[in-house]
Amino acid sequence: MGKIQVLDQVTIDKIAAGEVVERPASVVKELVENAIDANATAVTAEIQEGGISLIRITDNGNGMEKDDVRNAFLRHSTSKIRTVDDLTHISSLGFRGEALSSIAAVSQVEMITKTEKEPFGVSYQISGGKEISMEETGAPDGTTFLVRQLFYNVPARRKFLRTPMTEASHVSDLMTRLSLSHPDVSFQFINNGQERLHTSGNGKLKDVIYHVYGREIAGNLIEVSAQNEHIQLSGFIGKPVITRGNRNYETFFVNGRYIKSSILSKAVEDAYKDFTMQHKYPFVVLHITILGEMIDVNVHPTKMELRFDHQQEVYQFLYKTIGEALHERELIPEVEVPEPVPVQKEKKYFEKKEPPKEPSFPKEPAEKKPDDRKEEPKDRDLDYFMGKMRERVRSYHEQFSSAEVKEKGQIHEPAQKADKIREAVSYRIRQEKTKQEPKAEKEQKAEQLSFFEEKLLDESSVPDYKIVGQVFDTYWIVQLHDNMYIIDQHAAHERVLYEKTLRGMKTREYTSQYISPPIVLDLSMQEAELFRKYMDQFTRIGFEIEPFGGDTFTVSAVPDNLFSVAKKELLLEMIDSLSDEISPNLTPDILDEKIASMSCKAAVKGNYRLSRKEVETLLDELLKLDNPYHCPHGRPTIIAMTKRELEKKFKRII
After folding, report:
1. Confidence check: pLDDT of 153 > 80
2. In this structure, what is the dihedral angle of CA atoms 452, 454, 455, 456, given to the nearest 10 degrees?
3. Going by C-beta distance under 8 Å and a sequence separation of 6 or more, which residues neighbour residue 33?
4. Any idea what the Cα angle at residue 212 is, between residues 211 and 217, rounded to 5°?
5. Among 419-433, 560-574, 622-636, whose mean pLDDT is lowest?
6. Cα 547 to Cα 99, 164, 324, 511, 594, distances in angstroms
């Protein structure tokens, strides 16, 4: 007897189902696309337990005649193509004839369908690829599918499904894409009895974008429309102020079909290159209509990919159209000036870190005299200088256009000059003392020089190091015996804030600052699930977050070291950094490090002048760190050069 045998039909269907039915979202995709092909104007998708226990798809389309019901569940049976020539100009979303047979092979399916002409509908049940019953029933026009117990007969596949919430988020994302692909169809999505999406079906794409993504994105859109002899393009692109940390907001439809294409993504991102920062991706919803002869949709079993015959032409057309749209508009972002914060709150938050301030808007405007300025405290402790550094960072991020000197009386400030004089005198006294100390000359031996033999960042080195000065408003030069150290103030401050945040997460010792008004986050279902999953990591460093209905959250307090940069974009960037699907099961330590690295946004920037006292405070903070030599992104905080190396450069020694 030969070894090669023809497989039975049940085994064939299960193998085919493995290609078409990957998860509950795959079932929803096939059935909703069938509803759209049946000219439905309203489609409802309802799931329970992420679609694992139940999927119900209801439409008001053409329905199915009784004679076609059994044939619809046979492999490679379809009403959408007749010959191989039809593959070159497919206008429907489905055409393979594999979906219903594959779904029926791995689940318990009931279909209720009725055409407009028939007085009664048909109820058909099939389980595991075997027919159970078929009978007449009362039903409205259209088709309803009930898919129960997905993968009930393939335990190995069911075991690899994710949690119900994760599977539901995939279905939600799919329904969002489908609603954007056909704005003329009303889509409703219900998860565990709760409505999560409901579009009007009025044919206006911008209304769907508003309903799905919210007012902020809908208010920052640019409409695009163009065509040539082969391609027609329409849709909306986001202004450069709308960017995300991944490609989830890039949505492409080719002939009404949602697809993922590296060519289209590259064309869009290249057009945005001059408008967005590195590793930021734009918001686009684009509909592309192209001749069927120029594409091959029969590439992937799920039809999520396609192949262009003239890739370069498609790339150039898309790149040119989006580039022109971006350059035509004046894209200067509008800055909203926040309301002045009441004095009481400012005092409450910063009473230990800075002296009380005068009210921003006095009732009787009077010219301020130099002598009226409040004296700064004489005892400047660590809190005072860290507070000053925080003020500088805040002013950098706010970037108001108003000049820093607001009144004539502030041009000459004797108190500040006195501070500088006292600082210079104390520095000169220290320098004189250093010169008077006897220098014990040591005989130098030929040995390998090591950066770590004589540590600058060691508590024993504090009395010996000398701050020489600053260059380029970024780098500080420090001398310690025969070594010269150059410190990057931004990288050093990043390291201090990073380790301070990590330490606070582990010990749960943190200080929160309340913000008014609170930050409101409108998230997608997938982002909301991610946010809830890692909520503890956010609260452990000082965030105060509360649900605000559905997938919306309010952030009423932030860690004190992020107060100056507490913006919606920072939180969205944090969420994007956690949505890395390559490593979904991150360890708690790695998660903590990811979130803590966001505190680097509050670090003082380069090209920003710090006082000598602030740098001394920064060095004192570096002394306490386990790894003060690199910032959290791997860049060095300090580089060193020995006296010997300098002398070799100047040819003093050979």
Report:
1. yes
2. -130
3. 93, 94, 178
4. 90
5. 419-433
6. 39, 20, 41, 22, 23
248 CB-contact burial (10 Å; exposed 0-12 / middle 13-18 / buried 19+): middle
The residues with which 122 forms a beta bridge, in sequence order, are 113, 136
Q: How far apart are CA 464 and CA 644, in angstroms?
A: 19
Least confident of 16-20, 88-92, 169-173, 475-479: 88-92
* 507 half-sphere exposure, CB direction, 13 A CA radius: 9
Q: Are 146 and 164 in contact (CB under 8 A)?
A: no
Handedness of CA 447, 452, 453, 455 (dihedral sign): positive
Token pair in block for residue 173: 């994302």
From the DSSP assignment, how many helices (H) and strands (E) are in the chain?
20, 24
- In angstroms, rounded to a whole number, what is the distance separating the alpha carbons of residues 333 and 335? 6
Q: What is the pLDDT of residue 191?
A: 94
Count of other CB atoms within 10 angstroms of residue 291? 14
To the nearest 10 degrees (0 to 180), the angle between helices 489-507 and 588-597 is 140
Strands 231-238 and 243-244: unpaired
Measured between alpha carbons, how far is 33 from 86 in angstroms, rounded to an integer? 19
Instruction: Give backbone dihedrals phi and psi of 514, rounded to 5 degrees, phi first.
Output: -75, 145
Mean pLDDT in residue range 357-369: 44
Closest CA to 36 of 181, 235, 195, 145: 181
* C-alpha radius of gyration, the chain, whole number: 33
Handedness of CA 605, 608, 613, 619 (dihedral sign): positive
The bridge status of strand 186-191 relative to strand 42-48 is: parallel
Which pLDDT belongs to residue 457? Answer: 52
Longest Cα separation, the chain: 111
The DSSP secondary structure of 373-405, one letter per residue, reads: SPPPPS---HHHHHHHHHHHHHHHHH--SS-S-
User: Is the confidence at residue 640, as pLDDT, over 90?
Assistant: no
The Cα–Cα gap between 83 and 75 comes to 16
Q: Summarize pLDDT for 482-527 with one digit per residue, the tens.
A: 888 888 887 787 787 777 777 766 666 667 888 888 888 888 888 8
Residue position matching structure tokens 């049976």: 77
Cα distances from 546 to residues 385, 550, 566, in angstroms, run 33, 12, 16
Instruction: Please give the Cα distance from 187 to 435 (Å, whole number).
Output: 82
* Torsion angle of the four alpha carbons 3, 6, 11, 14, in this order, in degrees rounded to the nearest 10: 110
For 318-357, write each residue's pLDDT tens digit. Answer: 999 998 898 876 555 554 545 555 544 444 433 444 444 4
Determine the Cα–Cα distance for residues 94 and 72; give it in Å rounded to an integer: 13
Determine contact, residues 34/164, Cβ cutoff 8 Å.
no
- Quick check: 333 and 219 in contact, CB under 8 A? no
| pLDDT of amino acid 373 | 44
More confident residue, 198 or 88: 198
